[in-house]
Amino acid sequence: MEPLQLSYQADIVVLSIFIAVIGAYTSLELMHRFTSAEHNRLFWLTGSSVMLGISVWAMHFTGMLSFHSVHQYDAGLTFVSLLASISSITIAFFFFYKQKERKRKFIQSGAIMGLGVITMHYIGMNTMNLVFTVHYQVPLVILSVIYAIALSTLFLFLWERLQYEKYQTIMMKTGAAVLFGLAISSIHYVGMFAVKLQPNYLAEHVLEMNQNSLVMAVAAVVFLLAGTGLVVSHKTKTEAERNAHRQELQYLSLFKHNTDGIFIFNKDGMVLNANAAAEALTGYTLEELKGTTFNAYIHPDDHSFVSMVFDKSLEGTPYEFQVRIHHKDGHELSLQVKMVPMLLEGRIDGVHTIVKDITNRLKIEKQLKEKEEQYRLIAENSSDLIRIVEVDGTVSYASPSHQHVLGYSPDELVGKRYDAIVHPDDRENLKKKYAYHFQEKKSAIVEYRSWHKEGYWIWIEAHSSPIMNDGVMSHFVVTAREITERKQYEEKLEKMAFYDVLTGIPNRRLFYDRLSQTITKAKRNNGELALFYLDCDRFKWVNDTYGHDTGDLLLKGFVERVQKCIRETDTLARFGGDEFAILLDGFDTVQDVGRIADRIIQNIQVPWNLNGHEFITTSSIGIALFPNDGLDMDTLLAHADQALYQSKEKGRNMYHFFTDELATQITRTMEIEEGLRQAVSKEHFHLVYQPQMNIQEGRQAGVEALLRYTHPQIGMIPPLEFIPLCEKNGIMNEVTEWVIREAFKQQKEWEKAGYGQISIVINISSSVIEDQLFPETVQQYMDEFEIRPGTMEFELTEATLVNNIDQVYSFMHKMKELGIGISFDDAGVGYSSFKNLKDMPIDKLKIDRSYIMDIPLKEKDRAIIESLLSLAVRLGFDVVCEGVETKEQLIYLQEKGCKFVQGYYYSEPLTKEKIETAWLNQNI
Fold first, then answer.
1. pTM for the complete prediction?
2. Are 831 and 912 found together in one domain?
């Protein structure tokens, strides 16, 4: 059977070439966007390669349609040939722009592109296997492959050249597109010579395609894609040119108005341009500077160095250095210079030079060095101890006077920490002073004991001053002197001031000091201590009955008996009268503390014989333990006093521990109260939101904003615990206003995010009802966040009706005038009556969860709910049932006509982020 003689329709052949030209031009435009874009580069590269792949395939397919033959194709293979064209060109483009080595990228990408195009061609030929048997002439096939790879490589070379700005003209791009269209078309028609088509008369009848319709369809798709690509490219190019123009104006403004001098040199070192600051700096005008080299005004001694730096800059390395120049009037200036390579189309074309006059700075630095030398001489000849301490705590300088005062040479101290020879007990205080410098950046005075090299401690008074450099602490200057004699004299005075004159034991002042220190040490070492409050029962009776002499003897004897029961390391102090305190510095078990208290009680009740008088006394003791009963002195003292009070209340002559239950209750409450006072300012409150559902319409109706409080130490505090404390401490109004503002702000944020104005229900404290300025505050927040009337709802509890009912009504009407809805919570469990309900301007009635939890099982709860629903309908209220947690509850409420519900069946209260994800996004 004779092979089919191929003949073509000239008009379709021309159209196929035109398709390739249009596609190539569009791809060039998109590729230029890729090379010039800073963002979305992957988008432009992909668009360019896909556009070219579709165009090449369309040219091939249209070229085959130009045969004078019946056109029947295998649709699957046709699609595969399209994928082969797009994927091969896309991969080739990606390789071309990812590969850094120039020769390799042309070989790799040219081969991938050529093989892909020719593969597409031969796959396309096989699509006619339904009516033709395709025979390949291997030599011509090989030749067509080589031809395709060669033309693809040449195309990529031209493609690369056309990315330079100077080739980005319509003429150049059009010419390149025409060349590429002809080249691709030639690959197709060369490939056609490598095949022989033999009619397959045995083929089954297949659906014949209308030639003209296919041609027009393919051409239309290509032209549509090309048109879209060109429009997008043109729009992007216009925006890029606008941005480039804006950047050029910004650069010119920066160049002209920069306070630093700017010079632009060409590669020969000639001045091309200079700004006004450069003219003022050198004294030369721009016309005088143009055409001169930098050596014309640089100090001769700096010529070779600057020439070397300039050459390095031309190699691509920025440099910063100092140089001297001669001003036009002859005086010398010192400049800080920064040379930066000037790039033009990826190549270094000159050097930008930025210069700053540092003549005065260098002069000041010289003066500072002279001053430093003067200060050094003063320090080395001073009798005071002078040190420089770096911010890391190491000594960088020590004056020679250290040798005389402390026995150490300066070299023995330099490099060591500032507290290396400080008494261990004084280091903590010194460390605090050191931290004070960082926090307050102020001078400080500190006294401490320092170790003399000969083996004893001496007292030092040090004045430390932070030295700042541009607002940053550089180091400390410490001036110190010995004060050992003064401290010894002060210690004598202190003993007189800190000990009880009658008994010789520490007084209240010294006891507090020791207690404070012991607490600090216990905190540092995770230790324990016990604090006793005790008194001598019947002392007043003895003093009044037998006289003050006998009373004094009793106090002295009391001290002696107590001291026999405690260790030497423990402290017994007299606070005044018959009040005493004991500090047990550490103990093994609580039972040991109890045994000590018991011994004291037993010893004290032994009969006394003083001044011929016999009598019996007892002692009552209160005990507080660290850290269980308190972490600071005031707390421990208060708790020991409370425990002593309990001992007296229970009949005296006994001891009593401060109980854990009482400690926990008092401590927790105090901590929460303290935290609440700062909760608004420190943002420890936050809101969560629980959806309210319209179960009759099956949609979300809004959310209820619920206040939550996280204590910085305790953690999350239940509302039932912290809200009463807010009311007790008089901060409920402030908290309520914070809640309202946060909810209003959140609604505005949701509106901006596209969720619309979400209806929010806010719980209102009864205390704000008495605030005459509250409506004005609400109006202010509504104006600030542009809240539309009808989108916010305040929820009051029935408890508010206990107060002035007229005031409550007035408040409700004012809120209604502002467009704020009113809902009434806890319906049926509080103080409301039908009369109150019918007169109140409310919008919703909320049925308490206590009636919901047992429905539909409990008949009484059902009766109450049905009655409230019926009442609400007749009074014109909507009803919200809270606490819905089961499907059975939901179905029952739906059947009874309830409109709104909320509860864990739908959702727990959620943070704003979670409710956006779980609920609000579903409503957009």
1. 0.37
2. yes
